[in-house]
Amino acid sequence: MDFDVLFIGSGQAAWNGAIPMSKAGLRVGVIEEGRFGGVCTNRGCNAKITLDRPVELMRQVEQLQGRGFDQLPTLNWHDLMAHKHEVIDGLAYGNEMKLAGAGVTNIIGHATFVDAHTLRVNDKDYTADKIVIATGRVPHRLDIPGKELLHDSTDFLVLEDMPKRLTIIGAGYVAWNLQPSPMLSALMSPSSCAAVGHYVISTPHTWIPSLPICVIVG
Length: 218
Ligand SMILES: Cc1cc2nc3c(=O)[nH]c(=O)nc-3n(C[C@H](O)[C@H](O)[C@H](O)COP(=O)(O)OP(=O)(O)OC[C@H]3O[C@@H](n4cnc5c(N)ncnc54)[C@H](O)[C@@H]3O)c2cc1C
Hints:
Layout: E1 3-8, H1 12-23, E2 28-32, H2 38-43, H3 45-63, H4 77-88, H5 91-101, E3 105-108, E4 111-115, E5 118-121, E6 124-133, H6 153-156, E7 166-169, H7 173-178, H8 182-187, E8 193-196, E9 215-217
Parallel strand pairs: 1-2, 1-6, 2-3, 7-8, 8-9
Antiparallel strand pairs: 4-5, 5-6
C-alpha cells in the first residue's frame, strides 16, 4: 500500500485528522481538487469573520458615542473586500504547507474510486489501507424559474458591490451564519433581509446589537 490513510478533500474534516495521524507516524496522503483548506478556510467561516470584524468594531464605537468617541467611522465595502482577499487568499497555500510540514503527501486533482483501497487522480493510482471521504458539501442548486439569477454563499462573499436588498432562501446552517452577521446588519436596511425556510436554528450571534430584522417565512 502507498499510504496507511488517504483523505479525499483537505478541509477541516481532513486536516484535523491528517496532521496528527502523520505526526504519529502513519503514512498519510491528502487529495484536493480545489483550494487547500476547503470551504471554511477559503469561502466560509474565515471570509465571513474577516468581513464581520470591522463591522463589530464600528458597533462598539457606536456604543461609545459621547463616551470617548464623537464620530462614527464609515464602512467601505470595496476596501473591506480587498482586505478580505489579503487575509484569505494566501490561506490555501498556508494550509497546503501546514500539511506538507507535518509530513502529509499532498496530491492535487480529482479523486475517483478504482476499488475499496485504490483512488485514481490524474490517471495515477494510489493505494491506501484506509480511505477517508472528506469531500464536504456543495450548494444545492434550486430548479426554479429564474435560477440563473441566484447566488450562493460563495458568490456572496466575493461580491464587488453590496446589494441593497437580500433574500436568503433556506434557514439552515449557512443562512444562520450569514443572516445575523454584523456586516449585513451594517450595510443593509433592517427591512431588506428575509430568510425563507421551514425552521431557523437559534444563533449565538444574537447578542450583536442592531441585527437586521429578518422575516422568516415557514
Ligand atoms: C458561508 C459559510 C460560513 C460558515 N461559517 C462557519 C463558522 O463560522 N463556523 C463553523 O464551524 N463552520 C462554518 N461553516 C461551515 C464549514 O465551512 C464547514 O462545516 C466545513 O468547511 C466542512 O469541512 P469539510 O472538511 O467537511 O468539507 P469542505 O471544507 O467542503 O472540504 C471538502 C474539500 O474536498 C474537496 N473535494 C471534494 N471532492 C473531491 C474529489 N473527488 N477529489 C478531490 N478533492 C475533492 C473540495 O474541493 C473541498 O476543498 C460555514 C460555511 C459557509 C458556507
